[in-house]
Amino acid sequence: MSRIVVTTLGTLGDLHPMIAIALELRQRGHEVMFVTHQVYQSKLTALNFEFHPCAPISRP
């Protein structure tokens, strides 16, 4: 099947719907990984998703 990267840079209100989609994708046989804020790592790894932190946004 496919390897899918999910990314969100918002709050838990943005993350939770993406988790629901990712769980369904995984159930259908896809590999799903997340690229998002470091603060969400424990939540995602607890659900057995591969996690990669996104780089902080630098502002001038």
TrEMBL record:
Keywords: Glycosyltransferase, Transferase
Keyword Transcription included in the entry's annotation: no
Keyword Lipid metabolism: no
Residues that span the membrane, as ranges: none
UniProt-listed Enzyme Commission number(s): 2.4.-.-
Matching Pfam families: Glyco_transf_28
Limits of the Glycosyltransferase family 28 N-terminal domain: 4-53
Superkingdom of the source species: Bacteria
Record Gene3D superfamilies: Glycogen Phosphorylase B (3.40.50.2000)
Name this polypeptide is given: Glycosyltransferase
